[in-house]
């Protein structure tokens, strides 16, 4: 072997080692926690970030905490840092059905009111950052205003928030997080992805709810890959990630979303044990806790595994009901995928729907099995 060939060989091995190190690095775990009468009992060492859901925006463009229990829940969450100082508590603003975003980003003064009120809450509750969950810029929702200009105006809001958070951090010697929750396809048309990525620490990609009450058939609502027989444009997590990467979002700024809940379908056609079949009724949502304690223990339900989509489903042949969900096996497949793609981590919805942190523990085991960065 020539010296030049040997050098090329060593260089290839070095590059391979670098790629493997990136892929094997531990990832972040971000969990959303909704408000409630009592804060949940969280093991703080298992998470990197808790996103409190949700603050909202009023008609005067101000960010506020709705409900009487939100302040106490936030205080309980920030108190977890006494046991795990590295844990960061972030205020998530918005959520499905939350309005007034379009008006709040429409001009510089409105954006300033939004930022002022959000920063005031950050200071009041000693938070570690902000997460914007606008579902979805430029698109209509249930009673929600929208405008084509939302796309650019949202970018300007995020850039303004980044500047404000950096200024706040300079005064307190802290880095304050700025993140968003977002989806793919038509739901991402209102996002200038390459530009906003520069303002964001990461994007929590909502890779779930691919199938539900508004789709013509049943399917994997959180499937990792396409399933056999699905339409070419069918939604799945891999396609969503590929879209964001192609748009210029760095891999380490993408968090893959996983579901700690399932979607139910009723009156389902029986072919293929209900998968990719028409249905007549929507059974709504079911938590992992309810799945683990109910259908998975009952003989009437049969668990199936889709090796192509890397996703499970439950089928009740007697009642023609189907449940699509994430479970430990599908999460382990997603852990391998996150490593291969060099993604920044996982986001999950939602903490209270887990069962004794069973699904969270799968993510933790995957993270802790990887060496430090």
Structure, briefly:
This protein has 373 residues and is an alpha/beta fold. The chain is built from ten helices and 14 strands.
Overall SS class: alpha/beta
What does the average pLDDT come to?
Answer: 94
H/E topology pattern: HEEEHEHHEHEHEHEEEHEEEHEH
Overall structural domain count: 1
Distance between the termini: 35 Å
CATH topology: TIM Barrel
pLDDT below 50 for ≥5 consecutive residues: which ranges?
A: 9-23
Tell me the major beta sheet.
8 strands, parallel, barrel
Number of helices: 10
Share in β-strands: 15-25%
- How much helical structure, as a percent, in the residues? 25-40%
Task: Name the overall outline.
Answer: globular
Query: Which CATH class applies here?
Result: Alpha Beta
What this model shows, in words?
It contains 10 helices and 14 strands. With 373 residues, the protein is α/β, with parallel strands linked by helices. The chain has one domain (27-260, 331-368): TIM Barrel (Alpha-Beta Barrel). Strands 1-2-4-5-6-7-8-14 form an 8-stranded parallel barrel, surrounded by 6 helices.
Task: Describe this protein with a few key phrases.
single chain; 373 residues; alpha/beta; TIM Barrel; eight-stranded parallel beta barrel; five-stranded antiparallel beta sheet; 14 strands; 32% helix; globular
């Amino acid at each position: 072997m020539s010296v030049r060939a040997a050098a090329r060989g060593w260089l290839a091995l070095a590059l391979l080692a670098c790629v493997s190190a990136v892929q094997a690095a531990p990832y972040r775990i971000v969990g959303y926690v909704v408000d409630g009468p009592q804060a949940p009992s969280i093991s703080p060492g298992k998470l990197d970030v808790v996103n409190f859901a949700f603050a909202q925006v009023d008609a005067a463009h101000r960010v506020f905490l709705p409900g009487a229990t939100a302040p106490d829940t936030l205080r309980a969450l920030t108190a977890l840092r006494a046991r795990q100082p590295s844990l960061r508590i972030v205020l998530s603003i918005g959520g499905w059905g939350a309005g007034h975003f379009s008006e709040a980003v429409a001009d510089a003064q409105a954006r300033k009111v939004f930022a002022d009120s959000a920063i005031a809450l950050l200071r009041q509750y000693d938070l570690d950052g902000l997460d914007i969950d606008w579902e979805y810029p430029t698109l209509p929702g249930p009673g929600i205003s929208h405008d084509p200009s939302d796309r650019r105006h949202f970018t300007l809001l995020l850039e303004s928030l980044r500047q404000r958070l950096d200024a706040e951090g300079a005064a307190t010697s802290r880095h304050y997080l700025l993140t968003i929750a977002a989806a793919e396809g038509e739901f991402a048309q209102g996002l200038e992805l390459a530009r906003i990525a520069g303002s964001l620490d990461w994007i929590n990609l909502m890779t779930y709810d691919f199938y539900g009450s508004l789709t013509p058939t049943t399917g994997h609502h959180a499937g990792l890959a396409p399933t056999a027989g699905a339409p070419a444009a069918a939604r799945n997590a891999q396609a969503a990630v590929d879209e964001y990467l192609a748009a210029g979002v760095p891999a380490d700024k993408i968090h893959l979303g996983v579901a700690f809940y399932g979607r139910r379908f009723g009156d389902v056609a029986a072919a293929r044990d209900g998968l990719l079949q028409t249905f007549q009724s929507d059974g709504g949502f079911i938590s992992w806790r309810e799945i683990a304690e109910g259908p998975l223990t009952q003989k009437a339900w049969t668990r199936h595994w889709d090796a192509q989509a890397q996703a499970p489903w439950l089928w009740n042949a007697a009642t023609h009901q189907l449940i699509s969900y994430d479970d430990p096996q599908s999460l382990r497949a997603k852990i391998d995928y996150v490593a291969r793609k060099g993604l920044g981590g996982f986001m999950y919805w939602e903490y209270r729907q887990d069962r004794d942190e069973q699904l969270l523990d799968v993510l933790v085991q995957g993270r802790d099995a990887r060496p430090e960065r």
